[in-house]
Amino acid sequence: MDPQRVNIARISLTALTVGVLAGCTYTVETDLTAGAEATEATEATKAPGSFAEPFPERLFTMDRVSVVPAAGDDVIPDGTHHKATGKQLTVTYRSGEGVTAGQQVTATGSQAQVSDLKGALDWLTEKAGKPAGARTDWVPVNPGLSPAAAACQNLAEGEGTRCYWVDADTVGYLHMSKEAAPYIPFADTRLELEGLEKKK
Length: 200
Known about the structure:
Shape: globular
Helix content: 25-40%
Order of helices and strands: HEEEEEHEEEEH
Number of helices: 3
Distance between the termini: 81 Å
Structural class: alpha+beta
Radius of gyration: 27 Å
C-alpha cells in the first residue's frame, strides 16, 4: 500500500476521533450549561401564592428597595392556628418622586401551616392589640383571592395603616405609610406580593 495513503488514512481517523470527542465534550458542556440555566430559571420563579423571592421589582408606583430576613419586632409569632414553615422575609417598597413621594410599603411573611384561617387572623390581631392613638380597631378587609382572611387597622395620625393576612399556606403582615395607605388597595398588594393573578 502507498505510504502516503496510509498517512492520509491515519490523519483522517485521528481527525475523526478528535472531532467525535470534541463533539461529545461540547454536547456535555452545552447540556450542563442548559441545566444550570434551567436551575437558575427555576430559582428565579416562585409558586403562585407563596411569600418568597423573587418579589416584583415594582409595586404600583414604588420600587423594591430591600429584601431581608425578618428580625426583631418584624417577626410574626407562631400561634394556636398557624406555624411558619419557611424563612420569614421582610420586603420594602418606596417611592421618592413626584406626587407619590413618601409612599412606602413594608411586608413581612412566610409560608406557614394554617389550620384555621379566621382563628389565626383573630389570634394575630388580638395579640397586636390597639395601640394608643389608633384611629380604628382591626377591621376585616377584602383579602383578594380566597380562601384567605385579612384585617387592617388605621394607626395614629401620620403612622399609616397596618394589616395582617392569612391564606391556606401563608401568613403575612403589611405596613403602609400614611402617603400610601389611601391609594393602595390591600387586596391588590397581597396578590402582587404572592404572585397571584386577579380573578377576571
